[in-house]
């Protein structure tokens, strides 16, 4: 029964995000990226896991560009592998892969621990646990790490359930930055 509600919630959040106007997206993206920059500066994070955004996700590309110019910051992104992903250094060119997700070339750089993970969400439940696209890739990735970085969830429009919809393995936010 729980998964039925979780999938309904996921669908309604995606629908809300898809119908956000381009002007509103542009405006919200700028505000959220500015807040993320401030957070990164305050936290002193050096190794940062970001993502290459899909259309309904916060566009963090300006943040990636900005962080790459900084000497003391390393930017990593997911590289899909099996039922999860590994992290690779963000490099151009990007290639469109499974689910329409863009990725850099596979690299064998094994980074030091990621200090901060900025993660896109479709929605969050009452426990601030992530409702994603339903593939479980982020959940599996973080479950396999032997440490826990600070996790920030991003979303253009907060889509939060007042009910607990998550499963025990769903990842939980330390912070949620939205507009």
Automatic annotation (TrEMBL):
Q: Which residues form a coiled coil?
A: none
Q: Which GO terms describe its biological process?
A: folic acid-containing compound biosynthetic process; tetrahydrofolate interconversion
Supply the gene name.
Answer: fau
Q: What is the name of this protein?
A: 5-formyltetrahydrofolate cyclo-ligase
Q: Which PANTHER family match?
A: 5-FORMYLTETRAHYDROFOLATE CYCLO-LIGASE (PTHR23407:SF1), ATPASE INHIBITOR/5-FORMYLTETRAHYDROFOLATE CYCLO-LIGASE (PTHR23407)
Which species?
Arcobacter acticola
Catalytic EC class: ligase
**TM spans, by residue?**
none
Residue numbers binding substrate: 52, 57
């Amino acid at each position: 029964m729980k998964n039925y509600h979780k999938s309904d919630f996921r669908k309604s959040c995606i629908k809300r995000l898809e119908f956000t106007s381009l002007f509103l997206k542009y405006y919200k993206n700028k505000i959220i990226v500015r807040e993320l920059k401030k957070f990164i500066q305050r936290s002193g994070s050096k190794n940062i896991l970001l993502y290459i955004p899909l259309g309904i996700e916060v566009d963090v590309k300006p943040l990636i560009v900005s962080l790459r110019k900084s000497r003391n910051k390393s930017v990593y992104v997911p590289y899909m592998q099996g039922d999860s992903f590994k992290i690779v250094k963000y490099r151009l060119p990007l290639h469109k892969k499974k689910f329409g997700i863009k990725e850099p070339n596979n690299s064998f750089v094994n980074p030091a621990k990621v200090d901060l993970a900025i993660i896109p969400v479709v929605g969050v439940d009452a426990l601030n646990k992530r409702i994603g696209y339903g593939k479980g890739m982020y959940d599996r990735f973080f479950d396999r790490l032997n440490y826990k970085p600070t996790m920030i969830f991003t979303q253009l429009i907060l889509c939060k359930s007042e009910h607990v919809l998550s499963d025990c393995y769903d990842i939980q936010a330390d912070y949620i930055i939205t507009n």
